TrEMBL record:
SUPFAM superfamilies: Aldolase (SSF51569). NCBIfam families: DAHP_synth_Bsub, PRK08673.1, PRK12595.1, PRK13396.1. PANTHER family: CARBOXYSOME FORMATION PROTEIN, PHOSPHO-2-DEHYDRO-3-DEOXYHEPTONATE ALDOLASE. Gene3D superfamilies: Aldolase class I, Phospho-2-dehydro-3-deoxyheptonate aldolase, domain 1. Residues 1-67 form the DAHP synthase ferredoxin-like domain. The gene is aroF. This is 3-deoxy-7-phosphoheptulonate synthase. GO terms for molecular function: 3-deoxy-7-phosphoheptulonate synthase activity; aldehyde-lyase activity. It comes from Symplocastrum torsivum CPER-KK1. Keywords: Transferase. GO terms for biological process: aromatic amino acid family biosynthetic process. Residues 93-337 form the DAHP synthetase I/KDSA domain. Its EC number is 2.5.1.54. Pfam families: DAHP_snth_FXD, DAHP_synth_1.
Length: 352
């Protein structure tokens, strides 16, 4: 349920209403939008009569039921307004969301050694990326495949952050690792394979770093939004949704089917920012640029692109990784579409 306040409602009145709602056993959550203040109510609202709530104050404009099972993640919960996820980085704050320019995340699948991660960070920054991605803990299909360097790779990510000022995105696979990863990462990634790991979602929702939630490879949009709801319900409002391709019947040519229809669908269902990952979405470097450009045209808020200094030698996901040179060219191509849809701001590294 949401309580929409009239424009200009006094702060003291909103607080009084919240207190009264809390006394009725509800958990009111004040959401300050661009135009209006809305109070979100989750809990046992089934038997509540919206008209009764309306009577609490003449400053209440409307009381509406949120129909979807994902309450906090729904677009209605913010009365139709998109939210922003603002991430402080050494180079300044970067904002993800519908009202902001496109955010570019790039880097290798795995952190392999200091030289390669620092070099890749420098190259992607010079091309115009805002964040460096790189896995320390890797979820691999085979237990015999490279599992990531783990904790030692975290200090290499810290070195790349220090050298470039780029924000860091890296994956958390297991709850006990959250704290040490959060010391280095600016955004914590939950991978496709862990989207249904509800205890991890609860734990990651209980810490403060923003979360990048990848879509499970066989997850419906509703299941994905319910996974986001776990994080939001645990107290962390900063969730970005990342489409990374789903399983369909044809895996002969592309690793996954990149579902770009999520762009308009999510936009109508949720206020959360959206990221598209054409690297895992296609599995082939030569298909990545076309899908990246299509995603910008379709209205994505951000992109994640795997880049490796020598894809043929990569310890994971080489076939889908762009070379730094190809990435550089891609950013120039992206700027054409980005400008056409009004979502481009020249990255600081490029202006410098
Ligand atoms: C990754 O980002 O390298 C990764 C493993 O992604 P996903 O969880 O989407 O497979
Ligand atoms: Mn990868």
């Amino acid at each position: 349920m949401i309580v929409v306040m009239k424009v200009g409602s006094p702060e003291a009145e909103i607080n009084r209403i919240n207190q009264e709602l809390a006394e009725r056993g509800l958990t009111p959550e004040k959401i300050v939008g661009k135009h209006k203040v809305v109070v979100g109510l989750v809990g046992d609202t089934v038997d509540l009569d919206p008209l009764q709530i309306q009577e609490i104050s003449p400053w209440i404009e409307q009381v509406l039921r949120v129909e979807q099972p994902y309450k906090r993640a729904s677009r209605e919960y913010r009365h139709g307004e998109a939210s922003s996820v603002v991430v402080p980085t050494p180079n300044g704050s970067v904002s993800f969301g519908e009202q902001h320019p496109l955010v570019i995340v790039a880097g290798p699948c795995s952190v392999e050694n200091e030289e390669m991660i620092v070099e890749t960070a420098r190259r992607v920054k010079a091309a115009g990326a805002h964040f460096l991605r790189g896995g320390a803990y890797k979820p691999r299909t085979s237990p015999y495949a490279f599992q990531g360097h783990g904790e030692s790779a975290l200090s290499l990510l810290a070195a790349a952050r220090e050298a470039t000022g780029l924000g860091i995105i890296t994956e958390v696979m297991d709850s006990p690792d959250i704290e040490k990863i959060a010391e280095v990462a600016d955004i914590l990634q939950v991978g496709a394979r862990n989207m249904h790991n509800f205890s991890l979602l609860k734990r990651i929702g209980a810490q403060e770093k923003p979360v990048l939630l990848k879509r499970g490879m066989s997850a419906t949009i509703e299941e994905w939004l319910m996974a986001a709801e776990y994080i939001l319900a645990a107290g962390n409002p900063n969730v970005i949704l990342c489409e990374r391709g789903i399983r369909t019947f044809d895996r002969q040519y592309a690793r996954n089917t990149l579902d770009l229809s999520v762009l308009p669908v999510l936009r109508s269902l949720t206020h959360l920012p959206i990221m598209i990952d054409p690297s895992h979405g296609t599995g082939r470097a030569e298909y990545v640029p076309a899908m990246a450009l299509a995603a910008i045209a379709g209205g994505t808020d951000s992109l994640m692109i795997e880049v490796h200094p020598n894809p043929a030698k990569a310890l994971s996901d080489g076939p889908q990784s762009l070379t730094p040179e190809r990435f550089d060219r891609l950013v120039k191509e992206m700027s054409v579409i980005g400008k056409a849809v009004g979502r481009w701001s020249e990255p600081a590294a490029v202006l410098a």
